[in-house]
Amino acid sequence: MKREVVIIGGGPAGLAAAIEAESRGCDVLLVDENRRAGGQLFKQLHKFFGSKAHSAGVRGIDIGRQLLQKTEELNVEVWLNSPCIGIFSDKRAAILHNGVTEVVEAEKLLICTGGAENPLRFPGWTLPGVMGAGAAQTMVNVGRVLPGKRILMVGSGNVGVIVAYQLMQAGADVVGIVEGMPKIGAYGVHAAKIRRAGIPFYLGYTIKEAKGTDKVEKAVIAQFQGGKIVEGTELETDVDVICVAVGLRPLSELAQMAGVRHGFVPELGGFMPLHDENMESSVPGIYVAGDTAGVEEASTAMDEGRLAAAAAAQALGHFPDEEAEKRKQEIRDRLESLRQGPFGERRMAAKERIVGKGV
Amino acid sequence: MEDRRVREHPILGIQEENFVEITVDGQTLRAKEGETIAAALLANGIQIHRYTAKKHEPRGIFCGIGQCTDCVMTVDGNPNVRTCITPVRAGMTIETQQGYGKRGTGR
Ligand SMILES: Cc1cc2nc3c(=O)[nH]c(=O)nc-3n(C[C@H](O)[C@H](O)[C@H](O)COP(=O)(O)OP(=O)(O)OC[C@H]3O[C@@H](n4cnc5c(N)ncnc54)[C@H](O)[C@@H]3O)c2cc1C
Ligand code: FES
After folding, report:
1. Of the N and C termini of chain A, which has fewer Cβ atoms inside 10 Å?
2. Could you tell me which residue ranges the 2Fe-2S ferredoxin-type domain spans (chain B) (predicted)?
3. Which residues of chain A neighbour B10 with C-beta distances below 8 Å?
């Protein structure tokens, strides 16, 4: 089986890429291992930032719906419940589809598999009830089931703070947010909502232990200084869930299998596939976009997907050079305006460094 | 049993519910068609999905997006099914997995 453009992963990056490629006349196949495309968007109930061009003020779930509708209108071929389990030479992707492994030969392959949460190891961290903040968010916002009644959040970045608020919104009792640094990591608006709700921040604290026999029953937190726990400052509280929100890392196993050159970029989540100004990797014809290409946000993921797809359509001869260059520049300018503020600027600098070095 | 389902939500609204029956370790439970097995178990108060091979320690949901394999169980005789991304179907048989599990025999 052959397709011009095969996109692995139907999150914001993959969906936006599929729409861009299909509208330029490419023959596209989008695969996702979930039963529904949309990736992490369907758990993002908060409104987005940025300008109107970036869907600011629109909730992640609504952006997801718009993307899905557009892929349907364009008749994009989508395989759901279909994990890609390997990439072989010559851009052949092995995809488990309806119980059979199909090998699809792609002229251009886009890897948009997203990111995964980093774990944090402490005594008791493997007990049922200790989970990623994103896992809790998935359970409550997609599954509509509360993972617990009394929840402690570890990490005060955007994910930690947003998920804590969403758990509270769904009826859980969030007992506090623990943060090892002396200040809150999240954007002010999100943190303010937590403060207004009366949820305490424990700044300069960390999780010391999760206690329980076969699931979490208690959390022990303690002051954290110079990378060490300060003995004697422990506080213990009853909880049934401990959520860990200590950052995300790019999921790049497939890119690794494909032989794509990687590098370590701490600002973007660590070990990641390197790419050029078209999101193309060191393997010609293999592109990366979204969290796989460095962890950022859904809005940047969508534009990276569009950029990769526009470049692929151009290389396939579907998109005349002059128009394609214009379109790509427009997307790059948008990405630049998205990468602002204290987090965005660091990511922008990291991206420039990667692209500057070449693949 | 305590109820963990979020029926009314300030942003997501009220949810339609279409229940089916599944069997978990021999017990009949109610689950919503199409929800993930992990969500169905959680709604029924079940948090332990498997026991590890060497130390027989319990494990439950960890990443929730199919990436860590902590949540695997034996489903319809197939071991190592990631329950956080596998949808419920009426009549499914789900078993708490011991170690790496065995095909067919369950457990
Ligand atoms: C659990 C979680 C919660 C998050 N919550 C927030 C939040 O509240 N706010 C925020 O701003 N950011 C959040 N993020 C960050 C989020 O990753 C980005 O906002 C954005 O969703 C990234 O888009 P993406 O398309 O790169 O990846 P994703 O949205 O992660 O999409 C990747 C897609 O690829 C599919 N996939 C992965 N591997 C394979 C494979 N081998 N075969 C087939 N399909 C595959 C997945 O099923 C998924 O649909 C969260 C991240 C995670 C992991
Ligand atoms: S909880 Fe990680 S794979 Fe299911």
Report:
1. N
2. 18-100
3. 169
